[in-house]
Amino acid sequence: xxxxxxxxxxxxxxxxxxxxxxxxxxxxxxxxxxxxxxxxxxxxxxxxxxxxxxxxxxxxxxxxxxxxxxxxxxxxxxxxxxxxxxxxxxxxxxxxxxxxxxxxxxxxxxxxxxxxxxxxxxxxxxxxxxxxxxxxxxxxxxxxxxxxxxxxxxxxxxxxxxxxxxxxxxxxxxxxxxxxxxxxxxxxxxxxxxxxxxxxxxxxxxxxxxxxxxxxxxxxxxxxxxxxxxxxxxxxxxxxxxxxxxxxxxxxxxxxxxxxxxxxxxxxxxxxxxxxxxxxxxxxxxxxxxxxxxxxxxxxxxxxxxxxxxxxxxxxxxxxxxxxxxxxxxxxxxxxxxxxxxxxxxxxxxxxxxxxxxxxxxxxxxxxxxxxxxxxxxxxxxxxxxxxxxxxxxxxxxxxxxxxxxxxxxxxxxxxxxxxxxxxxxxxxxxxxxxxxxxxxxxxxxxxxxxxxxxxxxxxxxxxxxxxxxxxxxxxxxxxxxxxxxxxxxxxxxxxxxxxxxxxxxxxxxxxxxxxxxxxxxxxxxxxxxxxxxxxxxxxxxxxxxxxxxxxxxxxxxxxxxxxxxxxxxxxxxxxxxxxxxxxxxxxxxxxxxxxxxxxxxxxxxxxxxxxxxxxxxxxxxxxxxxxxxxxxxxxxxxxxxxxx
Length: 645
Description:
By secondary structure, this protein is an alpha+beta fold.
């Protein structure tokens, strides 16, 4: 391995710069909510402990068995899904985990590129390009969700390749090398995590061939990796035979043209700015014209792009002096391009024979293995750019104009992709009916992030503390995949910690007269950081000659950013008929209501003094103009009455 002549401090600078750049680039992930399968899988582990009395270990074991009986042999994913959601109970923790796992991949990619070339500057340049290829998509996206499964797979894969290279660097390294054992173990974990790993074994074979070992050592070193593929592949086939079903993974099609088209589409998703240029859901402005210029002239875009430009320029301008490294040889570049091509293309092969996956592929739109493929594109692409930088033509290796041009190309990719990612992240939060809302996101449960945060917080604060277990808690709204007829019991069990029956708008109506323990939850969300949730109790009604059914307010959870500083009375007031017989719409002073619990930006009030007779249907929350100047731009400077429904 050729040393690069740099001090360890330079490597620390590169890594620190990369981590800061990657953190800023992926920061929009932190503002997104649960989506698709995460919407209900995030509740399942905690709900199972409440509804079934299971331990977390039993929940994980049952989920692994369930995935095996579906005919899928990826037991580590069966473990990972409940384990991750059990470990990260809040959405911000879960998103921070996804960002952290992506940064780990970036760090290991830097280490792999450094190990393969002996060049810290090339490794940092290549990693910077990889950052610019991390594109968010309003479809199944590994950066937004999917429990970090692909990030963990990439980390294991790069760890396996690094350990294998260490083994190959040992003079006459035998089959009992601990590095080889670690490499095979990491690759086995990849194969148990996702079947796409089977087609990545050529990466290991290529590294062994690159080391120039003899035939016997090649066979001895490669056989454990081929054995992993053979055993795991056979078990996968066996499970599909034992548990046949109509699920998509039981159906394959090998039509050559369809397979090639799918490979091209999936691979295109890893190319620079491919999702931005394809714009499949009409989210971005036209690439030409003043609108695009205004769209890009954003302080955050300039900051992120400048950080990428600075790092690339430092790397591309080779240091001078006697200790300066020589250029990466032509043979080494060919190996890099070959490794990059395998990483960029091979993960699409198994997807390409699946009609289910092919049906949703398009230029720039692929499935979750795209996270693997971007590192292949980064490795091959940076090797080609580096060859131009180190070429003797055009002013010699590291000429200023070549370094500037290459750095500008990478920085432009990083900046434009960051801006596109911001738009996609906002799209996940856009409520139905708003300008940024897209049906493609809505059909998978997107668009209700802030209502979910509101309801989660209300239940955690104790909204249902006085509700007995197995009571009927009627919902006045449906939110798909987490707060509807199917999943609402999981939601209440997970966040309120008790089993309840939860009918809603899409469920059969609650009978009249109401059950002895019948409650109703109304929620109202006006703006980010503002909202309210009301618990009421239904009593009586339906008996011949009797009193009509009554729905009386019991508890009110209110969220307001300055409520803990200015107090409930100055943050909002209530309107509704009160026990003294005032007209509907008469104000109710929040200062007179007992505070059960409070925290930063929220308060849980008891409506006990008037809740026994205060009709819930007439209650309205009005957010007053905040006295805090920083909040004066909020949703209401005296908002219209917002009815809880």
